[in-house]
Amino acid sequence: MKRTSGSLRLLCAVAASILALSARAQESPSPGSTVDSLLAYAREHNPAYAALRLDADAAAERVMSAAALPHPKFRINLQDITRSGEQSPSLSPGNVGSTRYLLTQDLPWFGKRELKRQAAEFDAESARGQAGESWAELAARIKSAHARLYYVHHNERTMREMLDLMSRLEKIARVRYAGGLSAQQDVIRAQVEQTGMKAELVALENERRELEARLNALLARPAGAPLQAPHGLRPVPATLDHAALEARVRAGNPQVFSEAARLRSAEKNRELAYRNRYPDFTVGVSPVQRQDAVREWDLMVEFNLPLQQASRRAEEREAEAMVRAARARAEAASNQALGELAEQLAGVDAARRTETLVAGSLLPQAELAFRAALAGYENGQIDFATLLDAQRQILQARLGRLKAQVEARVRLAEIERLVGSDL
Length: 423
Hints:
The chain has helices at about 1-25, 35-45, 45-65, 110-180, 185-220, 240-250, 255-275, 310-380, 385-420; strands at about 75-80, 100-105, 280-290, 295-305.
């Protein structure tokens, strides 16, 4: 009985361990089956995107300090520490001739603090735009890599189906050769075709590994970390209105947004440069202590004299140049984004038309031609080379359709990068 109870406890412990491991595996499955799983993992773990988000947070925190007054200053001035030679030097405020305390506060000219705050806010917006641009670029690369990985997986599947078909064709050629109905060359050509397909499968396997390593790098995972096979491609919107997308690019493109914020910041800094024509002030209060009592109070005001006209005008010209440069960058970013949008929309349209042509015409024709060629070869009406050509046409049609589907998704990823959001 003791041995039986010990065995039961051991079995229960093993079962509990297996269940725990299974639950852990279910809690954190490997990403890769869908684009959303990859994007969610990248948003959480990609260090480059995290760094830019933290930079944006830091820029937002600088807004308050940009508009804050400078720290006040406090000074103690001990006068006549020997009391006209009557005593040894003393550092006690009550034992010197008099002690003057001075508390001062620097005050910039009216409106300067507000301009600094606004410039800092626009700098923070620019930093947020840079973080958004980084994420849009990262998301587009992940979406494109996922679509290409889907292509490679299905290309491998198609190639294995064609390899199985070629194996059956080799058997037919062997039977005909054994019956004296065809030459041995047909069997050899079938074997050569199979060898070529196997070499293509090796190349596809290598391409799949490279894509998986690239995806893992984008996700900040080890290069050999497992990824689930893609389950499908993302749908492409039925209609892509050019004018509507142009409006979304102008309003939501992260780079355009960032450059526009930089332009507004440069404009505020230009206004601040012109405000430097006016003086800044320092005000202070100064109690004077004699022995143990404060007997005098002084007030003071101080202001700088902006008399260095050459340097001030140089600062103003610099600010003007910065505004013009920022405006040119903003215009260039907008033009580039709109040009890329037109290019990607044309690519989506071409991919759709290609897929429709292949799926509706080329692929059915290739399958019909192959069936006719196979029947003709079995009846001795055509040679084996014609049969191989028909088989290659099916393979090219299937791969052409798959390539058009993937190309449309890659173009869609670029469009979403340009508009700054999913469609």
